[in-house]
Amino acid sequence: MVDPLTIAHGAEWTVKHGFVYPNEFIYWGLTIVMYPYMTGLVAGAFVLSSLYHVFGQKDLKDIAKFALVFSLALLPVAMMPLMLHLQQPLRGIEVMFTPHFTSAIAAFGMVFTTYSIIVLSEIWFVYRQYFVEQTRALKGSTDTGDQIKRVIYNVLTLGAYDISEEAVAKDHKAVTILAGIGIPVACFLHGYAGFIFGSVKANALWMSPLMPVIFIMSAVVSGIALCMLTYIIIMEWKKFRAVLRKGLGDESVTVIAGVEMDVMKKTSRYLIGFLIAAITLELLDIIFRGYTSMKSWDILREVMFEEDFTKIFILQYGLGNVLPFILLMLPKMTIRRLFVALCLILFGVFMMRWNVVIGGQAFSLSFSGFMNYDLPIIPHNLETYREGLFGALTVAATPFIIFWLINKIVPSMKEV
Amino acid sequence: MSCSRRTLLKNTVKGAIVASLPISAFRLLSPAELKAAIGDEKVRWGFVVDTTKCVGCGFCVKACKKENEIPYDAPITRTWVERYVVTRDEKVHADSPMGARDGFTSARIDEETMESGGEHTAEIEPAEIAKAFFVPKLCNQCEKPACVQVCPVGATYQTADGVVLIDRTWCIGCGYCVMACPYGVRFFHPKYKVADKCNFCYHRISKGLKTACVQACPFGARQIGNLRDPDDPVTQTIMNERVSVLKDEYGTKPQVFYLGLDYTVK
Amino acid sequence: MKNHVLRPLWVAIAFVALILLARYVMVPRDFGVQGDSFTFNFHRAGNVDEWKNMPAVAYLGGETCVECHDEQGAALEDSPHVIIQCENCHGPGRDHPETENPATMTIDRSRGLCLRCHADLGYENSSRADLPGINPEEHNIDTQCVQCHNPHTAEFKEDA
Q1: CA dist A101 → A44, A96, A107, C36 (Å)
Q2: All domains of chain B, ordered by start, with CATH?
Q3: Domain spans of chain C?
Q4: Rg of chain A's alpha carbons, rounded to an integer?
């Protein structure tokens, strides 16, 4: 048994070579990769739903409701990796108590709360009518399950039972306004995740004013991609059930397939737009660093073109950006190809987060040594679970569980 | 109607932000408090490291770790000594095995400071060496500490006498300060699970003692003193000699001054 | 049912109020800006005094040692090793004099202790070269230095 006091935090997954200061380790591991990735998905999903509510992009109607509820499911998950990462998770709430606003992280609690309030209120307005209807419908039921449900719905109405046309119109108006406020807040939430990194002057890779913008763009990309992907899976499931019930040739099957393709084609146009913006900015950043060749460029170049070449140029740009881009641009789109492209995009954005967070720590502050990240796979203590593969998998799986739970109360796929 | 509703919605957001601001951040100070705050503080701690005197015995590191109860066999340390060997072909070799806790007893350069197993060591012929020297490092107690700026909860701060401390009961362990320090002086304490770093042995200097490393150094390569006292030897050195600081491009204004620093020092 | 639109707002306000209440209860009274800068002086005031007493001083300094160990003190006095603190070689002296417990002091007879200064690294222009150096791989290997050299006087042991 190794004395736990001799293990420095980070030492278990850091392999150093060259000249690295003694205290340097990869302090921000996979959990911190997950954090901007998850917030990115939240922001992206919300922006997608708002495009419909605010700008009346009718073509997004079907996916909008779904995206909104999904962004709610993602909300707690954006915070999860941060909590997992803290050495003192129980003290996390201090960020709300004594926020030190000169720190980029300090505003997290507030921005996040504000954003949560907006999303929750918006969902409330969207579903209030439904809550009231359910409360009324379940009134007579003697079934315990139904009664519990009724109590929940009753609480959710917050006592507002008026579903006259006038009142519902007010709801819609409120949704539009909230979605309108929500867009900048969502962008802020994420751009600000970029700011957390971009403002670290000690880190040569992170420090860039472009960082927040790059983060927003790739956030929207990943958020849209995830919504589309989940949408496809759910539609395929519906189609599969329709086939089971009514047989392959049934009309309802073709209808579902038609709707699905239609929504997807329209949404993917937005996806491509944001994807181009994201890649352009990232390339601009690299070109600029190369051209200005500051002191740090030597080591950055070595990290980018030698140490992490595969991760950056093959996995992130090649597999995660260029390939799906081609797949999306080719004519005669099929759901299967779209599916592959979407998975690749999600992977690409993940790699981008990886290459920023881990890549930014791949070189020493001394500029003459490197640190390799040895991802802890099989956890052998709490630390290697939290910062390892299984911690990340927990984080990745949670939104789907939450989404499933929320859907029991707030059906986001009903009218689809 | 619709207008007032909009205002109210806006107020939700505003209210949420404003209500949670720390009230103390905007509190007006009374004149007495203001005076105490700006302070005609009598002490401002400063440090001088004379690299030309250092022989790399590592007694400072040993003393620091034991004095400040930093787990002795963990690779982290509040102060450390680096060795630089510049060869005639202008290659720079540097290392600091275990922060030089046990000094430098071999001419082999431990280029891979972790788990090397001696594999990645470089043997350099004495005839090849153009110059070689040792550089002790410690927290620079910057005048504009980047680590303090980024602490989200006010757990690390600068005292009136210029030392940067960490509140062990308040640190949440996010690691942002560790990331923000350009000098790599911060780490997580394996026992307390909070950020930790050199604090000029605050418990010693505030009792009139020298820091453990200064006391341990047999060659006087380390000196601590009061920068507000013009007769203090440290102040004298900074005033009269040609001193430099580490990485001044970060604008952190370090309060640890170096004599005999080479351009190859990282 | 005049303005049901405001319902979420009340919930939000209640939530914020809850946090402010918790903040009031949980944040120490002395937390705040202690100097002139919110950026650098925002903290719990009491922590400064905590650090003034934490941890207890461990390295006492050579003057304390020679009060009792005058023999070693004298030996060191006129030796080139006078510059070296006793505690560098024997470890921190905290608790040792009070408890008079010799076990708390270490006597390190390893070659490594002396080699910190005396291993010849061949760095001509560093002050390491000013110390008398030996090649650790040739100079009487496998034998403790203190077998032949007195660590305090730095003299050759006549009886060795």
Answers
A1: 26, 11, 6, 15
A2: 2-79+138-259 (3.30.70.20), 86-131 (no CATH)
A3: 3-53, 62-156
A4: 23
Q: Which residue has the tokens 């495009």?
A: A51
Provide the residue range defining the domain that includes A104: 37-199+399-416
Residue A64 lies in a domain: yes
CB contact under 8 A, A87 and B188: yes
Q: Could you tell me how far CA A235 lies from the centroid of its own chain?
A: 21
CA–CA min distance B117, chain A (Å) = 12
Cα–Cα distance between A364 and A297 in angstroms, integer?
13
Q: Which of C3, C7, C9, C43 to mutate to test the interface with A (most CBs of A within 10 A)?
A: C7
In sequence order, what are the residues at sequence separation of 6 or more whose Cβ sits closer than 8 angstroms to the Cβ of residue A319?
Answer: A344, A347, A348, A351
Total domains in chain A come to 1
Of C4, C22, C31, which has the smallest distance from its Cβ to A160's Cβ?
C4
**To probe the interface with B, which of A16, A19, A185 has the most B CB atoms within 10 Å?**
A19
Please check whether residue C133 touches B, CB under 8 A.
Answer: no
Residue B257 pairs with which residues in a beta bridge?
B48
**Which string of DSSP letters, residue by residue, matches C20-43?**
HHHHHHHS-TTEEE-SS-TTT-EE
Q: What is the pTM of this model?
A: 0.89
Residues of C in contact with B8 (CB under 8 A): 6, 9
> Helices (H), strands (E): how many in chain A?
14, 2
Dist CA A378 CA A388 (whole Å): 8
**Residue of B74, B218, B196, B52 whose CA lies nearest to B136:** B52
Query: Would you write out chain A's pLDDT as a tens digit for each of its 416 residues?
Result: 578 888 889 888 999 988 999 999 999 999 889 888 888 888 778 877 887 787 776 666 767 788 888 888 888 888 888 888 999 999 999 999 999 999 988 888 888 888 889 989 998 998 898 899 888 888 888 888 888 888 889 898 888 888 888 888 988 899 899 988 888 888 888 788 889 999 999 999 999 999 989 988 888 888 888 878 877 887 887 788 888 887 777 777 788 788 788 888 888 888 999 999 999 999 999 999 999 999 899 999 999 998 899 999 999 999 999 999 999 998 888 889 999 999 999 999 999 999 999 999 999 999 989 999 999 888 888 888 888 899 899 988 898 899 888 888 887 766 43
